[in-house]
Specification:
about 100 residues; alpha+beta; four-stranded antiparallel sheet; Alpha-Beta Plaits
């Protein structure tokens, strides 16, 4: 069943972030993922921990596909560089 990778983030370095975007998109597409949303958080509805200002939702056919992307050799160097470009909270939802 479908799985979704949710990212809540704050961009620390816009130039580094911009350089990562095409590489991230290529790795995501190669793994069969697609971008459902990437943009500002509109409004916090509930909770005590405020969200970071940006959010992304990425769709995969299965939880295994999402994990394979996250652990892939194509994504590994992006993860390392991403940490300098942004602060992020990332989790997977299994819709199955």
């Amino acid at each position: 069943m479908t799985a979704y990778v949710h990212v809540n983030l704050r961009i620390r370095d816009p130039a580094r972030q911009a350089a990562l975007v095409p590489r991230f998109q290529a790795a995501l597409q190669a793994a069969g993922g697609r971008i459902l949303h990437f943009g500002p958080v509109a409004q916090m509805l509930e909770g005590d921990v405020p969200p970071l200002p940006m959010a992304g939702i990425f769709e995969f056919a299965t939880l295994a596909d999402a994990m394979a992307f996250y652990q892939s050799p194509e994504y590994a160097p992006i993860k390392i560089e991403r940490d300098a470009a942004q602060e992020a909270r990332i989790f997977i939802v299994d819709a199955g």
